[in-house]
Amino acid sequence: MKCVYSKRKGSMTLEKKEIELRVNGVPYQIRIAPHRTLLEVLREELFLTGAKEGCGMGDCGACTVIVDGKPILSCITLAVEVAGKEVTTIEGLSREGVLHPLQEAFMKHGAIQCGFCTPGMILTSKAFLDECDHPSEPEIRKAMAGNLCRCTGYVKIVKAIQRVAQNKEE
Asked: What digits encode the pLDDT tens for the residues 76-111?
């Protein structure tokens, strides 16, 4: 990465870097400044607006996406850090117009209020259920602790996740 001194502004700027992002199974070659967050690149360059910026500090979980099977906070992750890795956003969960079971369960159980936190909630719960087959309610609540919702009491969210976990067993 080269630094370039700008005489007009009297400041250092970083040259853009070309990276490959693999998002929802699709490879993208993009040229970005190295300080851009994954959230910025997803929303502003790839127009995938499911991940939201809530706090901008990694505290609320609204920006959660899955990278190589693990939930991450895209507002505090640099896009260059995930170059070459598989990124899954909420837009990538449905297949051929069929919603993912978690998306269905969140709708069916009324776990969606304003919807702002929902993509992060669904992606966090997907990554959790991919790792844990028979979670208890306390385990679900612990897994979801990094995702904040101002509208619900989390009861319907937990019920939706429990339903999907039960259906996996059947």
From this structure: 999 999 999 999 999 999 999 999 999 999 999 999
Element (H, E) at 20: strand 17-23
**The model's pTM:** 0.88
Instruction: In the chain, list all ranges with CATH 1.10.150.120.
Output: 101-169
pLDDT at residue 7 tops 90? no
Structure tokens, 116: 């702002």
CATH superfamily entry for domain 3-92: Beta-grasp domain (3.10.20.30)
Going by their DSSP bridges, the two strands 11-14 and 3-6 should be labelled as antiparallel
